[in-house]
Structure formats: structure tokens, C-alpha cells
Amino acid sequence: xVQLVESGGGLVQAxxxxxxxxxxxxxxxxxxxxxxxxxxxxxxxELVATISSGGSTNxxxxxxxxxxxxRDNAKNTMYLQMASLKPEDSAVYYCYAWRGSPRMEYxxxxxxxxxxx
Length: 117
Known about the structure:
Elements: E1 3-7, E2 10-13, E3 18-25, E4 33-39, E5 46-52, E6 57-59, E7 67-72, E8 77-82, E9 91-100, E10 103-107, E11 111-116
Parallel strand pairs: 2-11
Antiparallel strand pairs: 1-3, 3-8, 4-5, 4-9, 5-6, 7-8, 9-10, 9-11
């Protein structure tokens, strides 16, 4: 049974840093794409960042220059290093994983990130 297990969420002051982790279990293969999405109350889910198995990355506009996504394919673990955090970054952050053949996608349970002013 494939599961995505997240850790690292919590409370941080504005300007601080936080690192999120997402570990995939129940599989011996690396996903083609992994990423992070977030959703704040009353707002649409938005892309935070994605990373391919080859290391190609993509970031949402407001995250560029502040967030860094990485992955360890041997461990099937993905990380999100967040810096210069702002109160508007407060949201539930979700881990996402996708493979193309056969096509399958998975979501983590979400982890709360709260940035205080």
C-alpha cells in the first residue's frame, strides 16, 4: 500500500524558515514527479513546487527565490525548504506524487504551516 507521510509542519515567526519532508512508503520505485501544493481556508489549492525524477523543478510565482524543493530518489523522499516565510504562506501543505506508467497519483494527508506576524 503506497502512502505519503509528511512531517515538519508547525508554527514559525515571519521571516523564519521551515523544512517539510514527504516520505513515500510501500513502493520500491521512484515517482516521475513529486511536488507540494497548499490550500488556505477560503482559497483555491495552489502549486508550491514540483520536481521530476531527473531533478527538473518548477515553482509557483510567489515561492521563487524563497522555497527550494529537492528529492532523494533512493529513499523516495522529497523535501521543501522554506525561507523568508510570510503570514500569507500559512496553509495546509500537501505532498503529491505521480507516475506515468501505469498512471497513478497519490496525496499525503496534509500538514499545517502557520506563520505568525
